């Protein structure tokens, strides 16, 4: 069966700065794939190129058997691939429910939207309690729930999460990861960018490590978690930085 | 006392016109991150198109108003798509690209004035609408043209508010105004929404032009004064805030009317700016303004 997402030799960047130097990656149906790497290695750029926010310079991206590189982001959402960005960006002037409903913008069916809303509330019961509150008043963890929930509202085939655990308390991180696990158990395919390597690999079935815009190491998550190279290449940047600071 | 109330009522109705134009400027600012310097000319264009429909086609006033609003809205959409989009889509906000947008806006304002000049000539044209007898409330007599302004402008504001609050398209517009990337990732067709926002803003400007036309003459330069006053109104209320634009428009209208009535009518245009300066000194973000919008 064709993979859900098949990225080949992706090259791209911002302005004249090239970030991705030919990254290739595939995600099979029903998998949770972790994309790991230090700061500035191209993780977020890869997600942005895949979701259409950034036009790739060359290479190909196929989703569910169809080329999507160069398409507009809303067209990609319509095809069932949704990205949840880093930084917990909800619309502060909208209520929780308005934020979520916006995620179902491509769904022009009231019954389906209501169904999706109930499903999101079942994943994140706290959001149901706060449904009429402005999202600007929520805590960091609740904002992340709103963002993931908004991503789920169009009932996509696959969701890409950019650092869902960033800047959250450990207890909240556990909650979020548990919910991501539940979501995949219900049949969702997930590509997850994470700094929290251990947690990501515990949850994932397969992992990639990106370095300097290319895939450096890949393998099953079980193997990677015990691989010293992964730890080294992941931490390499930060250790070097720390030494430079000293 | 009656004189005072008279002035306030006239100020409020003229303020409604400022508010409509200021609403457009604020909508465009929050949706496209640009300040549209040709918005006064959109207002002028709306008034001329209205005058043509009214006199040449002999349409009644309400269909004239509706049609002029729709036509000008579409003209706005075309202007934005053809001339502005390549600059705004390159992004930039307040950077060099943003500067380019300022120049293009001023250029568009001159171009539109000249087009209007070629078609309609330099003379101020009257827009006589038989509204009927003025209505009388106690000792006050209010010309029907002012009543029309208030009723129509209020209706437009209520419709705009309902659309923004209650519909999916309104939700999408608010999303685009706040963060285009996240709107995109939620599946909103952002380029289309930008057209909708710009078209709506131009439609509101045209409505203002057609509403004021029976009181003032319709002329090529009518956009210059209104732009500056609507701009003052938008800034007084809080730039980018829609309720602020309405409040600012009403305040400018009332202050101007009171100043002209009690101090002197010769310097009528000064009062709006005195108000602007005072508000800026007390609350630089405007009355309903929040802290400066952070550009991504």
Question: Could you walk me through the main structural features you see in this protein, from its secondary elements to its overall organization?
Answer:
The complex is a heterodimer of chains A (246) and B (296). Chain A has helices spanning 43-51, 73-78, 96-103, 110-123, 125-129, 140-152, 170-185, 197-203, 221-225, 228-245; strands at residues 5-14, 17-27, 32-36, 58-63, 66-67, 81-84, 158-162, 189-194, 206-211, 214-220. Helices cover 41% and strands 25% of the residues of chain A. The radius of gyration of chain A is 18 Å and the shape is globular. The model of chain A is unreliable at 235-246 (pLDDT under 50). Chain A has a domain at 1-79 and 193-246: Rossmann fold (3-Layer(aba) Sandwich). Chain B is mainly alpha-helical. Chain B has a two-stranded antiparallel ribbon. Chain B is globular, with a radius of gyration of 19 Å.
Q: How would you summarize this macromolecular structure in one to three sentences?
A:
Chain A is α/β, with parallel strands linked by helices and 246 residues long. In chain A, 41% of the residues lie in helices and 25% in strands.
What's the helix and strand layout?
The complex is a heterodimer of chains A (246) and B (296).
Chain A: E1 5-14, E2 17-27, E3 32-36, H1 43-51, E4 58-63, E5 66-67, H2 73-78, E6 81-84, H3 96-103, H4 110-123, H5 125-129, H6 140-152, E7 158-162, H7 170-185, E8 189-194, H8 197-203, E9 206-211, E10 214-220, H9 221-225, H10 228-245
Parallel strand pairs in A: 3-8, 3-9, 6-7, 7-8
Antiparallel strand pairs in A: 1-2, 1-4, 4-5, 9-10
Helix pairs in contact in A: 3-6
Chain B: H1 2-32, H2 39-55, H3 61-88, H4 96-120, E1 135-137, E2 140-142, H5 144-166, H6 168-178, H7 180-185, H8 190-212, H9 222-237, H10 242-263, H11 270-282
Antiparallel strand pairs in B: 1-2
